[in-house]
Specification:
Largest sheet of chain B: 6 strands, mixed
Number of helices of chain B: 10
Number of strands of chain A: 7
Structural class of chain B: alpha/beta
Structural class of chain A: alpha+beta
Helix content of chain A: 25-40%
Bound molecules: flavin mononucleotide
Oligomer: heterodimer
Largest sheet of chain A: 5 strands, antiparallel
Radius of gyration of chain A: 15 Å
Helix content of chain B: 25-40%
CATH class of the largest domain in chain B: Alpha Beta
Radius of gyration of chain B: 19 Å
Number of domains of chain B: 2
Number of domains of chain A: 1
Shape of chain A: globular
């Protein structure tokens, strides 16, 4: 995946190098500016079992800042924000992989470097008894939960860096 | 063979006749005997489903998972451009201006319509509200939901968007919309039970061409539908997966 550049992200920003699970890495540009989750909407996406996006709805497109063409076929880590601890996603993959629904609060990175918080649920889609894909639906989170997670994730991140 | 068709109990009362007209049309086209059985509430209808009494159902999306994944129903059609959206309203002079203003102890007026209640509770989550810290008064109709709010017996009311739009102008002017859903993909589905499965192909053809002749168009109009959007099994499975993420 290409590095984020000033073509999409306006100053001021900070630059971070992210390493993804598949061995690739890229530079992301981060702005300290939140975009509120729209009222009444759900952000929906579906991936294959490797986490490659195969479907996303209009709210997903609007909130991520990418076009549908830019999203389909990309790994879901395209939204990974450097403030998210790795352990959160490990828990998500382990839980969903064992066939159990996962819920969690996630800070997502937009194409323009800003961020948005979601309350996400991920499930494994079973057809004829076999796992075939994953669905994730995000809802508007409460401010108290977002504040609690901001503090918790900062601690977890610090522990991961040590 | 005599088949039984039923309709999700949340259909607007004004459409009862519409479902009988639809059934008359369907019986004639299909050359089968079909009896319409209506239930006054979701519990009674679910019991009939569990007992294998139902062959064709216009189902609430909340029940689609059980029907498809446990009772062997197959998808056939969904109403065209008619998603189930929810509206949460307060009295026009309520101090509540946004969802975040709501506090634990909030009194909710609602019907027993399961998908509207699910979507509405999700829209209250940003205020840290849940079934545990709110009080819900369940009433029989959306008009009664409005009354509870207007009489100050409830702080918020949960409405199906279409039902809210159908309230009289006088009632609507005394209410204010706090939030409305824009989910687009949650909607009722017409599902075929195991006994009627062998007529699935014929049903598919009939419904997909229903808007193309006068009798069919008339029947659709009486149901308040623009037409049917034909559904593959995967279309419906997709919606069920989505519903699955929303129930705990
Ligand atoms: C259905 C599904 C939805 C996901 N949604 C997100 C998301 O919104 N944001 C995110 O950062 N990761 C999401 N992930 C997790 C990513 O696949 C990835 O694990 C994560 O971004 C961390 O990157 P890494 O695995 O390379 O460490 C999702 C995974 C699945 C299967």
């Amino acid at each position: 995946m290409d590095d984020m550049t000033t073509k999409d992200v306006q100053e001021p920003y900070t630059k971070h190098l992210l390493h993804y699970f598949d061995g690739t890495s890229r530079y992301v540009l981060i702005k300290d500016e939140e975009v509120p989750f729209p009222e009444g909407k759900l952000i929906v996406s579906r991936t294959d079992l490797q986490g490659i996006i195969t479907h996303c709805n209009q709210a997903f497109i609007e909130m991520s800042g990418y076009t549908e063409e830019e999203l389909i076929g990309q790994p879901h880590y395209i939204l990974r924000h450097p403030d998210m601890p790795k352990v959160a996603f490990k828990d998500a993959w382990d839980t969903v992989g064992s066939g159990v629904k996962w819920h969690g609060y996630v800070k997502n990175l937009r194409k323009d470097g800003r961020y948005y918080w979601v309350y996400a649920t991920i499930i494994l889609n079973i057809r004829d008894g076999k796992p075939v894909s994953c669905t994730s639906v995000r809802r508007k989170p409460s401010r108290t939960q977002v504040d609690a997670c901001t503090a918790l994730y900062a601690k977890l991140r610090q522990a991961e860096e040590e | 063979m005599r088949y039984v068709m039923t309709v999700s109990p949340d259909f607007p009362p004004g459409q009862i006749a519409g479902w009988y007209i639809f059934n008359t049309w369907l019986q004639r086209q299909l050359g089968e005997h079909i009896h319409v059985e209506l239930y006054s509430d979701f519990e009674a209808q679910r019991k009939a489903i569990r007992e294998g009494q139902i062959d064709l159902i216009y189902a609430n999306p909340f029940d689609a998972a059980m029907l498809v994944r446990e009772e062997g129903f197959t998808a056939i059609a969904a109403p065209l451009s008619k998603p189930d959206e929810a509206v949460i309203a307060v009295a026009v002079d309520s101090p509540i201006q946004q969802v975040a203003d709501l506090k634990p102890g909030t009194r909710i007026a609602a019907t027993d319509d399961p998908d509207v209640n699910l979507i509405s509770m999700i829209m209250l989550e940003p205020a840290d509200l849940s079934a545990q810290n709110t009080q819900t008064q369940t009433v029989g109709t959306y008009i009664l939901v409005a009354k509870q709010v207007l009489q100050g017996k409830a702080d918020v009311g949960f409405f199906l968007k279409d039902a809210f739009a159908g309230l009289s102008g006088m009632i609507q002017r005394q209410l204010r919309v706090l939030v409305r859903s824009e989910i687009h993909v949650i909607r009722h589905v017409l599902l075929v039970g195991p006994r009627l499965r062998e007529r699935h192909g014929d049903l598919w053809n009939l419904l997909s061409e229903m808007g193309e002749n006068d009798k069919g168009r008339d029947a659709l109009k009486n149901l308040g539908l623009q037409g049917w959007e034909m559904q593959t099994q995967e279309d419906t499975e997709f919606m069920i997966d989505l519903m699955d993420t929303l129930v705990n």
